Each structure stands twice: as C-alpha cells, then as structure tokens.
From TrEMBL:
<dbReference type="InterPro" id="IPR035911">
    <property type="entry name" value="MurE/MurF_N"/>
</dbReference>
<feature type="domain" description="Mur ligase central">
    <location>
        <begin position="117"/>
        <end position="302"/>
    </location>
</feature>
<dbReference type="Pfam" id="PF01225">
    <property type="entry name" value="Mur_ligase"/>
</dbReference>
<feature type="domain" description="Mur ligase C-terminal">
    <location>
        <begin position="330"/>
        <end position="448"/>
    </location>
</feature>
<dbReference type="GO" id="GO:0071555">
    <property type="term" value="P:cell wall organization"/>
</dbReference>
<keyword id="KW-0547">Nucleotide-binding</keyword>
<dbReference type="InterPro" id="IPR051046">
    <property type="entry name" value="MurCDEF_CellWall_CoF430Synth"/>
</dbReference>
<dbReference type="GO" id="GO:0008766">
    <property type="term" value="F:UDP-N-acetylmuramoylalanyl-D-glutamyl-2,6-diaminopimelate-D-alanyl-D-alanine ligase activity"/>
</dbReference>
<dbReference type="GO" id="GO:0051301">
    <property type="term" value="P:cell division"/>
</dbReference>
<dbReference type="InterPro" id="IPR005863">
    <property type="entry name" value="UDP-N-AcMur_synth"/>
</dbReference>
<keyword id="KW-0132">Cell division</keyword>
<dbReference type="GO" id="GO:0009252">
    <property type="term" value="P:peptidoglycan biosynthetic process"/>
</dbReference>
<dbReference type="Pfam" id="PF08245">
    <property type="entry name" value="Mur_ligase_M"/>
</dbReference>
<dbReference type="InterPro" id="IPR036615">
    <property type="entry name" value="Mur_ligase_C_dom_sf"/>
</dbReference>
<keyword id="KW-0963">Cytoplasm</keyword>
<dbReference type="GO" id="GO:0047480">
    <property type="term" value="F:UDP-N-acetylmuramoyl-tripeptide-D-alanyl-D-alanine ligase activity"/>
</dbReference>
<comment type="similarity">
    <text>Belongs to the MurCDEF family. MurF subfamily.</text>
</comment>
Length: 461
C-alpha cells in the first residue's frame, strides 16, 4: 500500500516531537513507507520489526540510494548507526507506534465520515458490503483485504486524499488494548461492532474479556460524540443502547431502529427487505447464508444514518459481488459435479463456526457434510469449544469429518462415533468421497493455520 501523505518539518514536530528537531527546516516528506521494495522519492521509511523480518536491515541502503528523505528507526539502532547517516535518522522507542502517530496526524486533516468496523466475526465481509453501499453516494476509502491491525490500519489511513468523501475502516484485535489504540488512531465518527463471540481467548480469556476489548470502540465514540451502531440481536451488545450517548440499533430478530426481514431463494441467497417510511426496498444479495443477511443489516443501518436514499442502498447491496475464490474463501459456493462446496476456509472461531453450520443446515439439499478443522487461539477454553461445535455440527449435518489435534481430543473425550477424525487433508477427502454420494452439500471450514482449502483442492484432483 503506497501513499503520498505530506509531512512538513512542523508536522514532524507534532508527530514525533524532539527526536525530529535536527532535521532540515525545509524538509518535505511525500508518503510514508514500511516496505523498502516500494519506496519512492521523498518517502519517510519506517523500519518495523517482526518475527521474520527487520526493516532496519534496509535503512542503510534506502538512505544511501537516495530514495528516502529520512528514516524512523529504533533508538538502539540510532546509537550504532553510521555517523554520516544520523542526520537523516529519527530515533524512537517504538517504530510501530511511530507509524500509528503518522496515520493519526494525517487522519486529523479530513472532516469526513469515518466508519470503524470491529467485532468477533464477520468484520471483513461487513466492511466490504458497507463500502459497496456507501460508495453509491460517496467516494470511499476502505481497508483492503483484512489489513486491520497496527500495521494495516495506519497504512490504510495514510491513503486518505482530497478525493475521499468517506472511509470504511476495519479494526481487529489479538490482545487487550488493541481496539482502544486503533480507535484513537482512526478517530471514527461512526462505529459498528458486528458481534461479541469467542475469539483470541489465549489473551482475551473469556467472553467478558472479548466484550471489554471490542466495546473500547463504543467507549471512544461515547467520549467523542460519535454514532454507535448497536446490534440488537447480540445479547451483550444490545445493552449498549443505554450506555452510549448516540446510537442506532439494527437487527433481524429483535426490535430495532433498523430491523430488516429476510427470506431465502432456492440457492440460499438472502432477499432482505425493510419498510421504514420512504426508506423502503427489497434487495437480493449475491452471498449465501444468514451471515450475509446480518452483514446487510449493518450496511443498511449505516446507509440510513448517512441519509442515503433507499435506491442507493439497494443498488449497493445488489451490486456487491464477492470476489471469486482461489483457494481459501469466505462462504463461497463452488460446484463440483453433483457436489456443492461451501468454501468458508478463510478462518474460524466458535461464533463463525456456528454461523457457517447454520448456513449448511439451511442450504437446500438431501445430504449435508461438515468438514471442519481446528479453531486456533482459544486458550484454556479450546477443548470445551471444540466439543460444543461437534454438538452443533451433528444437528446440522448428516456426517461430520474433522481434522486437527484439538478436534481429535474433543472426539476422544466425547466418544462420538458419528464424528470421523482424520489426521490429514487427504484423509478428509477419502471420507468425503466415501460419504457424499453423487449429490451433497459440503461445508469446509477451519482456522487459517489449518489450510482447509487444501481439502477442496484435493477434491478437484
């Protein structure tokens, strides 16, 4: 992700402080980069450190080749840097935080609606559908893919330009405090939490911890007179209608400011409808399942709050065509002879597993198989959560095939003869071919690390 965000000497004092005081007073930065491969003239290069890389390895080259105006480095690197490079180096305690500071400062230049989307599951799909709707009336910047962390979010914000009239920004979390940090960086005017579910329990511990973490977005909105979109169908979130100053409620199953109805066609594509004075329409979605309808409720509520017309919102919903899957995907329907594959292999946690299994159960067909891989990052709750999912799967599928160590332990503890555990992806395929017959609906899902898309690839062979 490249950008041309400008920063003057005065801007640098506001972003970095005294550490940038030695730079030339006439310095003019155009763009912030963390990737030495895409660096362009005038960029400031920020050297980030990760588990498998260190941007500091490239600082000497990018400065000597003349691409970068200056570089932001760690204080320990600065102390050992070559003397001739030090005038162009800015030493900071944490280069990742410095990247966020650049984005925070740049975001302050734009007085436009900025919509932040958080939640345990469905963030990316909701962000994409919301951006499709909002773009019918505004020129929109959106988070690309799922770049929702402390690197992707600031790089997205730095792409804001005069052409943009609104932004839809996805923010995610892996540990306590991340949503609070990203909310402060994004400075949203509007915010939506899709749901509260069991995610990243290794660090968030339990549902109370997830709720505290995700609702930091609502805390920010409440403190800054922002507008919070409250999911009335979520037992934990619906209480925030009374806790946040400005809210719009939405949902399918409970009374709400924006309550939509939903029916399904023969292919389980949702038809959503709403009757609210002149804001009345029906829209057919291109993504199957109940999750798509819930995502639509989010997008409709946001469109309504921005005073978009019913036609604009309808066109946005119907025009959104999820990208064709190549490998892993989010609830993509693939045909393979008489088999219908529900490819939901992008990722998994207990909440998204339940939604996917609900979609499998609703999908028209005579035989249904659930092929599931482990859910990662559940900490001490992992065994119980995998056992619970086995119970859910049995109620929605005629046969359940699982793989991964966590599901193996759950199967052994549950003593479930109706569940087949396989050690490998190829083992899963053998069981599918044995059980599916000539026609079946097959859900394939698991955490990203389980690479369950390999099951589908093997089925194609």
């Amino acid at each position: 992700m490249t950008n041309v965000a400008p920063f003057s000497y005065r801007d640098l004092q506001a972003v970095i402080g005294y550490a940038a005081a030695h730079l030339p007073a006439d310095i003019s930065i155009v763009g912030v980069s963390t990737d030495s491969r895409t660096l362009t003239d005038g960029n400031v290069f920020i050297a980030l450190r990760g588990e498998r890389f260190d941007g500091h390895d490239h600082v000497d080259r990018v400065l000597r080749e003349g691409n970068a105006s200056c570089a932001v480095v760690s204080e320990d690197y600065l102390h050992h840097a070559a003397a001739d490079l030090r005038p162009r180096l800015i030493g900071v305690p944490d280069t990742l935080r410095a990247l966020g500071s650049f984005a925070w400062w740049h975001r302050r230049r734009f007085g436009i609606p900025v919509i932040a989307i958080a939640g345990a599951a469905g963030k990316t799909s909701t962000k994409e559908l919301t951006a499709a709707v909002v773009s019918q009336a505004f020129r929109v910047l959106k988070t690309e893919a799922n770049y929702n962390n402390q690197v992707g979010t600031p790089l997205t914000l730095l792409q804001l330009a005069a052409e943009h009239q609104a932004a839809v920004i996805e923010i995610g979390t892996n540990e306590p405090g991340e949503i609070e940090l990203l909310s402060a960086m994004v400075q949203p005017t509007h915010g939506l939490i899709t749901n509260i579910g069991k995610e990243h329990l290794e660090k968030l511990i339990d549902l109370d911890g997830v709720e505290r973490e995700e609702t930091a977005l609502f805390d920010y909105l409440n403190d800054h007179d922002g507008l919070a979109f409250v999911n009335a169908d979520d037992e934990r979130l619906r209480t925030y209608e009374r806790k946040v100053g400005r809210t719009i409620t939405f949902g399918l199953d409970h009374d709400a400011d924006i309550r939509i109805g939903v029916t399904f066609d023969a292919s389980l594509l949702p038809v959503v409808h709403i009757i609210k004075d002149t804001f009345t329409f029906r829209a057919r979605l291109a993504t199957p399942g109940i999750a798509a309808a819930r995502n639509a409720a989010c997008a409709i509520a946001i469109g309504w709050s921005l005073q978009m017309s019913a036609d604009e919102v309808r066109v946005g919903l119907e025009s959104y065509d999820p990208p064709a899957s190549h490998g892993y995907a989010r609830m993509s329907v693939e045909r393979m002879g008489g088999l219908t594959i529900l490819n939901d292999t992008y990722n998994a946690n207990p909440e998204s597993m339940r939604v996917a299994l609900d979609t499998l159960g609703r999908y028209p067909g005579t035989r249904r198989l659930a092929v599931l891989g482990d859910m990662r990052e559940l900490g001490d709750a992992s065994e119980d959560e995998h056992m619970a999912i086995l119970g859910e799967a049995a109620s929605h599928a005629d046969a359940v095939i699982v793989t991964g160590d966590e599901f193996r332990r759950a199967v052994e503890r549950l003593d479930a003869p109706h569940v087949l555990w396989c050690a490998t992806h190829s083992g899963c395929v053998e069981q599918i071919r044995s059980l599916a017959g000539t026609e079946a609906i097959i859900l394939v899902k698991g955490s990203r690390g389980m690479t369950m898309e390999k099951v589908i690839a093997l089925l194609h062979e």
